[in-house]
Amino acid sequence: MISTFPRVQRWSCYEGFWYFPMFLEGLMSAQDHFIPQSTDIFITSCPKTGTTWLKALTFAICTRSRLSGSSASSLLTKVPHDCVPLLEYDFAQNPMKRDRAVPLVSTHVPYSSLPKSVVSSCCKLIYICRDAKDAFVSLWHFIADLQRSKNIEPLSLEEAFELFCSGISSYGPYWDHVLGYWRASLEFPEKILFLTYEEMKKDTASHVKKLAEFMGCSFTLEEEEEGEVQKIISLCSFEKLSNLEVNKNGKHRADTSFAMKNSVFFRKGEIGDWANNLTAEMGARLDYIMEQKLKGSGLKLPR
Ligand code: A3P
Question: I want to staple 106 with a disulfide (CB 3.0 to 4.6 A). Which of 36, 43, 203, 274 is the partner?
Answer without folding.
Answer: 43
